[in-house]
Design brief:
By secondary structure, the chain is an alpha/beta fold. Among the domains are: 1-24 and 110-219 and 250-289, ATP-grasp fold, B domain (D-amino Acid Aminotransferase, Chain A, domain 1), CATH 3.30.470; 28-106, Dna Ligase, domain 1 (2-Layer Sandwich); 296-483, Succinyl-CoA synthetase domains (Rossmann fold, 3-Layer(aba) Sandwich), CATH 3.40.50; 555-655 and 685-742, Rossmann fold; 994-1191. 37% of the residues lie in helices and 17% in strands. The protein contains 43 helices and 41 strands. The strands form 11 sheets. Strands 1, 8, 9, 10, 11, 12 and 13 form a 7-stranded antiparallel beta sheet that branches. Strands 26-27-25-24-28-31-32 form a 7-stranded mixed beta sheet, with helices on both faces. The protein has a 6-stranded mixed beta sheet with strand order 34-33-36-35-37-38, sandwiched between helices. Helix 13 (410-423) packs parallel to helix 15, helix 21 (642-650) packs parallel to helix 23 and helix 34 (996-1009) packs antiparallel against helix 39. It is globular, with a radius of gyration of 38 Å.
């Protein structure tokens, strides 16, 4: 949700910190929170003024509820706060904790000095509501407040004398302040409203209500008026004010008393480096609504969601509910929740086994291609909740459902779910849980196979269905309203198999495995009954903000359409090219890509089986000038830059090109200029349609894009959209999914049905439903789920109405907004005559709210009523008219075909289409085979259709998932469990987690071997190379190359020699004699400086640690006995560091119990031990490099006197 409420304290501080108006009294604020000692408040102004205290917990009408305590001194206010702080308070069915109180100075004033002011955003303007009589008893202000609209067009222009699109003179000349009889007060209000509106727009407020707004003489900081009892206060009435001079006017102040506000959370990234969205030095907080507390499970999922680019949502509605959902996709999750609630109420009414909407336990979604680990954690959380407590007497149901994915690998996401289900096998049996699965999309066949196999493996009833089954049919099956079909003999086994299973039959495309069962319903079309006297179908509020007339009359997409792609979206581009090829286009629809982070170059794609080069431009202007026939921009830019990209593209004028006539864009009567709304002649924009894919673009930016697109006669699709397509002509990005789904839904050739949907994820489902119940899709557009989409339902429906190739229209709307009422008005006025099948999703919100508010509800605390926030930003009803139920009834009332639920949408589409065919109003489009599109090698490999030898094998590290794995251990756990460098060495070198004493020993080895001064050969080489001007890597390597048997590389050799002697049962003296007789040096024995009389402290430290912590030290002890013999011969033949580390590592590998004998021998043989010296000494070598650089030492030349020159005589 983008529009979110903030605390009153936050709203006031944001205004105070940003507004520039001298007559606004910026009264101090103080918040007392739960757990804070109220008695410790010592603010001077609190102690010496009368106060107002009230809970600041997002409760409306606090005055009516008796929660505002005004005019009390601190002692009395303190008592009031203490009595209520931390107490429970119930409003209707909602119960919450009063956990924070706002304290302000009491502003003494009279009732006639109170005003009502409200501002809110709508599609093309900001609305200002004002009423001259505010306060607790203001009543229904919508019907009596004066209204003034500031258009987005004016806000963008902000001419001289205007601020954010309006001026005080405009307000005074309008009727907004007509109820204020005093000119001087009206002037103050006008000036204040202009300044406040500028702050409203600048700080991305979406709603701001001040009631009351007070104009009075009192000011806490004004001289002479500081009596805390208000005894010296004098009210100035309107008559008196007109008779006094300007000095008295200067003594009037505006006070903001009570505030309710919402801001656009999507704008948060704009203020991360600014103080404008900070409250008391902290970033603005968006709290939960009153009575809504986040459970630990919801908090955990929210934490996972914040860490990933995928989407994970969870709201627990009724922890005792019987039906749990695990839905993929925002639109699909709403539809499943709707269907569960609707069918549960139907079963309950019929006396069946159901508690109605209380059956629905949760709402949530997982989407955006989450990793296996994320889906595992999400599934585990759901299953934990399901299996907590005593089993339900009727058992429970888990619905794992979703539409047809565009790009998510279904099998990959199912792996995490399978893991969780396997772990919960016993709990699932104990709670008698049945599982219903319905999913489709890339690699769905493998995913469904895995699920079927799982059911047999864990002996749990798992019913699995694909796109041949209507999306919500599994809900009907779960409630016993639809028969569960037996498994088909010819189940789809692979992705390749699915491509031949669709055929044309009768009036539409029908899947060979199509589920023909009919829901047990009495009527397929929604009956219009008396819904509510407050709901009308006259869309006055719906259309007052929108001039719903299509502005683009040419065909939006044709077989000649060319587009530009902003962003290196290689997979999406290839998907578009494959669609083009399958559709039989002569040339690709993608003209070029734009990517500002690299110079101009070319990228390789495929046109069928042939390679195709597409240009990539650094600058958009270059791309547009070199490809003037590219009239569509697909904007894949992130939410941070998508606005700027669109604005830049819309400024480029059309360039004449011979290609235009070729592509049917211009005819002989065409002109490159167009008539603007104000009658001015302006040049036509090159881009005629922009698809904005990014989610989370702030609403103010979207509204500016809408305004500019209208001025330039450009159609916007999105933001937050997957795009749109015209079958057989053009598709945007990932719309329509991968090639197998394009072919299955017959999108390679046009049908007769056009659709428009809010949800991008559900657009693929509509492709499937329409193809199975008609002759297929002609065109489909997902306008996006934001509150203000770039184009609306009616923009596209009017295009469809004017297109003779389209026989019927399907609309999938949703709760929130009033765009559907524009369709109703167009039908009533006769602008739309073609049959429409429509359904608005989101009715479960009303059903849940109704259940929670019912008088006989004894368990309301367990049901979250009216607090669901659906996945789309715009899916939130702000009035009864915006509810899904109201919209569906209103649509049906004008003859639009509306099913009783989404569960029956497919049947209704088939019925309407068949009737059109039967009455000869529609002739089904002919089918033809598509071109064969080769499968990408990478995708075929992922599907398991091919295999090839790999180039490398890694058994220690995996970087492909959500986070890096070290020997299977997530990097986050490595850090959280503080494994340290030794622990990391254990994972990456030895492929296991070693005990703490072992990891500490490895770290001790690194510390001891890190450096041994500048004189040793490795350090010397490093220094010489550094002083020769070489870089870090070159200098380090020059030092490392000296490591060998003579310097630092004796660890492996020492370990082998000593362990072999020990294993051969040679006594130390026998070992020494044997090596002497063979003229072999004993590796690890001897030192140039240290001796038995000048022992090496490093060896002593290692020896002490080993004997204190190791399980056994036989080889170390053996080496020390050898040292006694060798030092008798020469004092410096001691066991050196290399030798001690080598033999100690042998004991660690053999005696720790973590390695087999074979593994221990292998690690010694392959050079593992020398790696310790190399790693440790690299630290010192780098230190010497940095030291020489800091000292700025010059080129090293060895002194002559340190060289013995012994040349032969020249004859």
């Amino acid at each position: 949700m983008s529009s979110k409420a903030v605390y009153e304290e936050s709203a006031k501080l944001l205004i105070y910190n940003s507004i520039c108006y001298s007559k606004l009294a910026k009264n101090p604020l103080r918040v007392v929170k739960l757990g804070e000692d109220v008695s410790s408040v010592t603010d001077e102004w609190i102690l010496h003024n009368n106060l107002v205290s009230k809970p600041d917990v997002l409760i409306k009408r606090r005055g009516k509820l008796g929660l505002v305590f005004a005019g009390f001194n601190w002692a009395d206010s303190q008592k009031k706060i203490k009595s209520l702080l931390a107490s429970k308070f119930t409003i209707g069915s909602t119960c919450g904790i009063l956990d924070r109180f706002l304290i302000e100075p009491f502003v003494p004033h009279e009732q006639q000095e109170e005003y009502y002011l409200c501002m809110y955003t709508q599609r093309t303007s900001n609305v200002i509501l004002f009423h001259h009589a505010g306060g607790v008893d203001v009543g229904e202000v919508d019907s009596k407040a004066k209204r003034f609209e500031v258009s987005v067009e004016n806000i963008m222009k902000s001419d001289s004398g205007m601020k954010a699109g309006c001026s005080a003179e405009q307000l005074l000349q309008s009727s907004l302040l007509s109820g204020v009889k005093c000119p001087k007060r009206a002037r103050m209000l006008a000036e204040f409203i202009v300044e406040l509106h500028a702050v409203f727009d600048k700080l991305y407020f979406t709603y701001l209500e001040i009631n009351p707004l007070v104009i009075c003489k009192w000011n806490m900081n004004a001289k002479k008026i500081n009596d805390c009892n208000g005894s010296s206060y004098h009210i100035i009435n309107d008559t008196e004010l007109q008779d006094v001079d300007n000095d008295i006017n200067e003594q009037l102040y505006i006070h903001i008393l009570d505030v309710a506000a919402k801001l656009d959370q999507c704008a948060e990234h704009l203020f991360t480096s600014s103080l404008e969205w900070s409250v008391n030095g902290k970033m603005l907080e968006f709290p939960f609504g009153f009575g809504k507390t986040e459970t630990k499970e919801e908090a955990y999922i929210a934490k996972l969601d914040a860490r990933t680019g995928a989407s994970l949502k969870l709201t627990i509605l009724n922890p005792n509910g019987r039906i749990w959902t695990m839905s993929a996709g925002g639109g699909a999750s709403v539809i499943y929740a709707d269907t569960v609630c609707e069918l549960a109420e139907k079963v309950k009414a019929a006396g069946g086994i159901s508690q109605g909407v209380k059956d629905l336990a949760n709402y949530g979604e997982y989407s955006g291609a989450p990793s296996e680990e994320l889906t595992y954690e999400y599934s585990k959380t759901i299953l934990t909740l399901m299996t907590t407590g005593e089993p339900h007497p009727d058992g429970k149901v888990l619905l794992i459902g979703g539409g047809i994915a565009n790009f998510t690998n279904i099998a990959a996401t199912f792996k995490g779910i399978v893991r969780a289900l396997t772990e919960f096998k016993e709990q699932l049996k104990r709670h008698n849980i049945r599982i219903f699965v319905r999913r489709a999309g890339p690699n769905y066949q493998e995913g469904l196979r895995i699920m079927r196999e799982l059911g047999r493996t864990i002996d749990i009833p798992i019913y699995v269905f694909g796109p041949e089954t209507h999306m919500t049919a599994i809900v009907s099956m779960a409630f016993g309203l639809r028969q569960i079909p037996p498994p088909q003999v010819n189940q789809i086994q692979s992705s390749a198999d699915s491509l031949s299973l669709y055929s044309y039959n009768g009036s539409g495309c029908e899947h060979k495995n199509s589920d023909k069962s009919t829901p047990m319903v009495t009527n397929q079309t929604l009956k219009v009954s008396e819904f509510s006297s407050t709901i009308t179908t006259t869309a006055t509020t719906a259309t007052s903000d929108n001039n719903h007339e299509t502005i683009y009359e040419e065909p939006l997409f044709t077989v000649k359409t060319k587009c530009l792609i902003w962003g290196l979206q290689v997979k999406a581009v290839q998907s578009m090219l494959d669609f083009d090829y399958a559709s039989g286009r002569d040339s690709p629809s993608v003209a070029a890509l734009i990517y500002p982070f690299s110079d101009d170059h070319q990228l390789t794609f495929y046109w069928g089986a042939k390679e195709l080069f597409l240009p990539v431009y650094k600058y958009m202007l270059n791309a547009m000038h070199k490809h003037p026939d590219a009239r569509i921009l697909v904007n894949f830019a992130s939410l941070r830059v998508a606005y700027d990209i669109c604005m830049e593209a819309m400024e480029v004028d059309c360039i004449l090109s011979s290609n235009y006539k070729e592509n049917g864009i211009l005819n002989e009567h065409s002109d490159t200029s167009i008539n603007h709304n104000d009658g001015l002649r302006v040049n036509e924009a090159q881009i005629k349609c922009i698809a904005i894919i990014a989610e989370g673009i702030p609403e103010n930016m979207t509204r500016r894009l809408i305004q500019r697109s209208r001025e330039r006669n450009i159609l916007l699709i999105g933001p937050a959209t997957v795009g749109g397509l015209k079958s057989g002509c053009f598709k945007i990005g990932n719309t329509g999914g991968m090639t197998d789904n394009i072919l299955a839904s017959k999108l390679y050739r046009p049908g007769s049905v056009a659709y428009v949907s809010r949800s991008g994820g559900m657009s693929n489902e509509l492709n499937n439903i329409i193809s199975m119940n008609s002759d297929g899709v002609y065109e489909g557009v997902a306008i996006g789920g934001d509150r203000f989409p770039g184009s609306t339902f009616i923009d596209h429906i009017l295009r469809y109405e004017n297109n003779p190739e389209i026989g019927m229209i399907v609309v999938l709307g949703e709760v929130g907004g009033v765009e559907e009422y524009a369709i109703i008005e167009a039908v009533k006025s006769g602008k739309i005559k073609k049959p429409i099948v429509a359904w608005c999703i989101g009715s479960c919100g009303e059903l849940l709210s109704s259940a929670a508010n019912s008088n006989n509800n004894t368990d309301s605390n367990n049901i979250t009523g009216g607090s669901i926030q659906f996945g789309h930003a715009g899916a939130c009803a702000n009035s009864l008219q915006e509810t899904a139920t109201a919209k569906n009834h209103a649509l049906a009332s004008v003859g639009i075909h509306v099913p009783e639920s989404f569960d029956e949408l497919d049947l209704l589409i088939r019925r309407v289409f068949d009737e059109l065919v039967r009455s000869c109003q529609l002739i089904p489009k002919p089918d033809h085979p598509p071109r064969n599109v080769p499968m990408d090698y990478a995708w075929a490999k992922e599907l398991g259709l091919i295999r090839r030898p790999v180039s490398f094998t890694s058994t220690i590290c995996d970087d492909r998932g959500e986070e890096l794995l070290y020997a299977g251990m997530p990097i986050s756990q490595v850090i959280e469990q503080d494994l340290g460098i030794g622990g990391v060495l254990g994972l990456l070198w030895f492929k296991r987690r070693l005990p703490e004493y072992a990891t500490k020993f490895l770290e001790l080895c690194l510390i001891i071997t890190a450096d041994h001064g500048p004189a040793v050969s490795g350090a010397h080489n490093t220094i010489v190379a550094t002083r020769a001007g070489k870089d870090l890597i070159s200098s380090l390597v020059s030092g490392l190359l000296t490591i060998g048997d003579r310097f630092g590389g004796a660890l492996d050799a020492a370990a082998r020699q000593f362990s072999q002697a020990y294993d051969a049962d040679l006594t130390p003296i026998q070992f020494v004699n044997q090596e002497r007789q063979a003229s072999r040096l004993i590796m690890g024995i001897g030192h140039r400086i240290k001796s038995i009389t000048n022992p090496d402290k490093r060896v002593q430290l290692l020896s002490n640690y080993v004997h204190e912590h190791f399980v056994a030290t036989p080889v170390v002890d053996y080496a020390l006995e050898v040292e006694k013999i060798t030092t008798n011969k020469r004092p410096n033949l001691i066991l050196n560091v290399d030798g001690m580390i080598g033999v100690a590592m042998v004991d660690l590998l053999r005696s720790s119990g973590y390695f087999t004998c074979e593994e221990a021998e292998e690690y010694i043989t392959i050079g593992t031990l020398n790696g310790l010296f190399v790693l440790g000494r690299s630290i010192g070598f780098i230190g010497h490099y940095l030291d020489q650089k800091r000292l700025n030492q010059g080129l090293y030349r060895h002194p002559w006197e340190d060289i013995s020159y012994m040349l032969p005589k020249y004859p």
